[in-house]
Amino acid sequence: QITEALLKERDKQAKWSGIPLLLQKLYEHSHPNSDFSQCQSILKEISPLLSMEAVASVTEDKKAAQESTFPNTYTFDLFGGVDLLIEILMRPTLITQKKKQKISDDLIKDCLSILYNTCICTEGVTRRLAERNDFVLFLFTLMTNKKTFLQTATLIEDILGVKKEMIQLDDIPNLASLVSSFDQQQLANFCRILAVTISELDPGSDDKHTLLAKNAQQKKNLGPSRAEINQATLLNIPGFIERLCKLATRKVSETTGTSSFLQELEEWYTWLGLDNALVLDTLMRVANEEAEQSSTESSDESGLANTSTRAQLPQPMKIMHEIMYKLEVLYVLCVLLMGRQRNQVHKMIAEFKLIPGLNNLFDKLIWRKHSASALVLHGHNQNCDCSPDITLKIQFLRLLQSFSDHHENKYLLLNSQELNELSAISHKANIPEVDAVVNTDRSLVCDGKRGLLTRLLQVMKKEPAESSFRFWQARAVESFLRGTTSYADQMFLMKRGLLEHILYCIVDSECKSRDVLQSYFDLLGELMKFNIDAFKRFNKYINTDEKFQIFLNQINSSLVDSNMLVRCITLSLDRFENQSDAKVAEVLSECRLLSYMSQMSMRMSFLFRLINIIHVQTLTQENVSCLNTSLVILMLARRKEKLPFYLHTLQQMEYTEKYPGFILNNFHSLLRFWQQHYLNKDKDSTCLENSSCISFTYWKETVSILLSPDRTSPCAIVSYIDEAYMDIDRDFAEE
């Protein structure tokens, strides 16, 4: 509406770079009946003005980028450029006549890349686009076109990243046929977008959030979340999981790269987003190294062959490409494995042989040795956590962890000989074989010399002490042992030196990382639970008082991290004391660890500290185990009719600390919370039963007895708190 003369006059002074005039021309040439032929040449003039700012915004360091403004992009948006481009893109959808308007692919590409550049440089544009649901869903329809696929995918990814409300995949027009139109490469790109739609936005799903907050949130959310609905939508797309499994397990040599080197480079550029423009110089360096290598290897007569190899994508880039794809695919599979349809996903993944496929890629791709010119992003080193190589390893370990956690299919991680070995261990020990081992379909297990679990153990033992992978490796192996304790599984891993490796890390290398220590303690607990041979081997390794003291110091340095191990030792000791076997009696008398735990004063000390480090207001998924461990100690005491003695001792300990009531009042509140939390109809109590071999009914009874209001009952907590110090009636609202 502003006159051309005015725009021209102000242009220089306002440093508008002629953008408003160009937009005015664009508006005139994009009216409903125009053929858009002029639009493209106008966009070609606008585009460089914006893209140079976009490149500047991502290559500058973040701090400078925040301070600098991008006048061209700002002017473009100020004069309605963003809305005009949306209108041009969506015009064909508004026309009802038979003669559909066709916008050329190049015009669509230009519109999309200008929108993307504006999003990068101008605050709030991405959010505005995200609020237009019609536009977001329309973008998905552009993905059917191969030529505009990458630009569209990149823009969608940016928009979904800031969208307040998660989109519903159901709303995308013809989703199933859209997905089936993708080739494997596009499907991998699409997985990046899917990741945002199937992961819970709710920050409360994090371990660090308090259980009070989570429980309050759960009461509000009655139906399944959007992420859960989206997961179900994906599973209903015919052949979707099968294609993901194929993508995840294909070898680098199977990738049919028909596109030229330059096309691939352009794809990389878009795929990594401009923020990794620095990848390009690395890529070019790699490409040159490769080319030089091949030219020195060949003499003149193969000059012709040389030109063709130069046009091909160099091997390190091919590998890198494959790693980037697999990363996205494994992430999606991992989320689905942890979702509501877990059993259905498990069945499909087994059937499409994901595990044997990953096993065959283990050495060559997943845990490959870095080549000299491994791709390292500018300013990063090979081992920093953002390199794709490292992210792939972590994603792979997370997948293994969610795959084997409390599921019979975990035995697919072994090969046939290893399964036979499990049976042999059971026969030799005279115990029945685990049903799941007998029922495992041998046609779906790993092939080759070793299964995935054994390969994982091998790399775990070679991992440097301060490596960030140790945490994930230990978690993956521990989830294989979780559930009902299996002697054969434990022995299988112990035969491969796992117990000694863990003790070496905890004691000899005096590991300092809290996360790694916690995962090693948890793994050690699962490995030794109820296994007399494990305690014997422990004693053989921890064979001096000095070593034992270091071990105890590590346990005591953080009970939140080590309490699962304390629970395992307590439960095992209780079981061994009730057995009348000569071998067990011998280990009981010799093993430092069991002797230590059999002292009443030690058990009381653990109990006192476990109750003291948690409070209802600070309970999280991570530290609630301390409450369950303290309950295990008291349930075992109740079985031996020692419960009053334990409560009385806690009371004595409070007096010694000159603070009567502070432990028992706190414990009373914690147990009331326990009832609220675990007696919820959705709560799964089988984990507590399986890990302790104590029936859930006994857990519930013990808590009820402890919470009895009868001050004359010798097993009620209130009997041990003086009236003056009672502080148990407070309701714990979310604080």
Word description of this protein:
The protein is mainly alpha-helical. Helices cover 66% and strands 0% of the residues. Among the domains are: 1-58 and 69-165, Alpha Horseshoe (Leucine-rich Repeat Variant), CATH 1.25.10; 637-734, no CATH class. Helix 35 runs antiparallel to helix 36 (624-639). The protein starts with a helix and ends in a 29-residue tail after the last helix. The longest helix is centred in the middle third of the chain and has 23 residues, at 315-337. It is elongated, with a radius of gyration of 31 Å. Residues 273-280, 297-311 and 371-385 have low confidence and may be disordered. One of its GO terms (molecular function) is phosphatase binding. This is Short transient receptor potential channel 4-associated protein. It comes from Nestor notabilis.
Structural class by helix and strand composition: mainly alpha
What would the principal axes of the Cα set say about the shape? elongated
Q: Ends: how far apart?
A: 55 Å
Strand tally is 0
How is the quaternary structure best described?
A: single chain
Briefly, what CATH class of the domain at 1-58 and 69-165? Answer: Mainly Alpha
CATH-scheme architecture of the domain at 1-58 and 69-165 = Alpha Horseshoe
CATH domain topology of the domain at 1-58 and 69-165: Leucine-rich Repeat Variant
Assess the beta-strand content as a share of residues: under 5%
Detail the poorly predicted runs: 273-280, 297-311, 371-385
Overall radius of gyration? 31 Å
- Mean of all residue-level pLDDT scores: 84
- Largest sheet features: none
Q: Output the CATH homologous superfamily of the domain at 1-58 and 69-165.
A: Leucine-rich Repeat Variant
Region (Disordered): 290-310
Pfam family, one: DUF3689
Keywords: Receptor
Protein name: Short transient receptor potential channel 4-associated protein
